Amino acid sequence: MMTQMAREIAEQPEAVARTLDQLRPLRPELARLAHGTRHVLFVARGSSDNACVYGRYLLETHAHRMAALAAPSVATHYRAAVDLSDTLVICVSQSGETREIVETLEWATAQGARTVAVTNDGTSSLARAADLTLVTHAGRELAVPATKTYTTQLAAMAILATSVAPDPHALDADLARVPAEMAQLIERRDGVDEAVEALAATTETLVTGRGLLLGTSLEIALKLEETCLRPVRGLSYADLRHGPIAVVDADMAAVVVAPQDGPVLGGLTEVAVSLRERGTRTIGIGGDDAFARACAVRMPGPNLPEPVAPLAAVVPGQLMVEALARRLGLNPDSPRGLSKVTQTDG
């Protein structure tokens, strides 16, 4: 019997296509709202935070706008008085009802910021409080682990970043190919069963990536933790090399997420080689032929250039997590102790 999580993974190509179509016309309005600002701050938690990691990298590498991830507690607990009059604040929440995120947007407004909400509910508290709302068109998501709400947030990040880029349409042809690439990955499921067996053989897991796909790595690590109930470390490979690699051994599985091109691919291939030399069960997602040879198991990624690859590169990881949960006798639709809307405090 197909799980709800599997159904919602399968709905992603259409959901992402809808979201791109609905949000593309908002580019001029986003550009007007951002005009005159010098800084961009993202506010989110959980999977939404991982989507913001992609948004930050895309803004900086493609739109040449510096961005950062804000700490909501600066607003909700410390109530710091800071000048945000030259700042665009992007608050992201799939439900739009996480009180911490709503309060942070309200605080940012009081500090002079211009605000954008990214949410799957255009009538939510977050949407009502923002200057402009990007509504993701995922449809209702019933499984607790975010899948289609996450990838539609990535679509919103792509629209946001391109709206303030020198050429807003430069990535449009590649974005148009994303839904078909997602559908192909879902249909083929290449390497998923082998990856599940490698992960099931150990309780110690590391997930690593870098650059535009770092958010994808962190999202896969989060999904493994919340859905399969396993402690998982998600790290940039740069951070991995600065100490944590010392604990990697043959008792561990490592998932390495790589683009098919771009400046970080060579380093990720070297990391995959190093991990395998330590006896680690190395599972690769994406990459090129050299990367595939460096991994014990490889799940192909999308045939997309690095700037838009994150919209589809998470799909093999989602398939792997859903199948691993079933392999372990767990219900991926309703992980222990979690609910669809999470409140940070009490």
TrEMBL record:
Residues 29-170, 195-335 form the SIS domain. Transmembrane segments: none annotated. Keywords: Repeat. SUPFAM superfamilies: SIS domain. It comes from the Bacteria. InterPro entries: GlmS/AgaS_SIS, GlmS/FrlB_SIS, SIS_dom, SIS_dom_sf. One of its GO terms (molecular function) is carbohydrate derivative binding. GO terms for biological process: carbohydrate derivative metabolic process. This is Glutamine--fructose-6-phosphate transaminase.
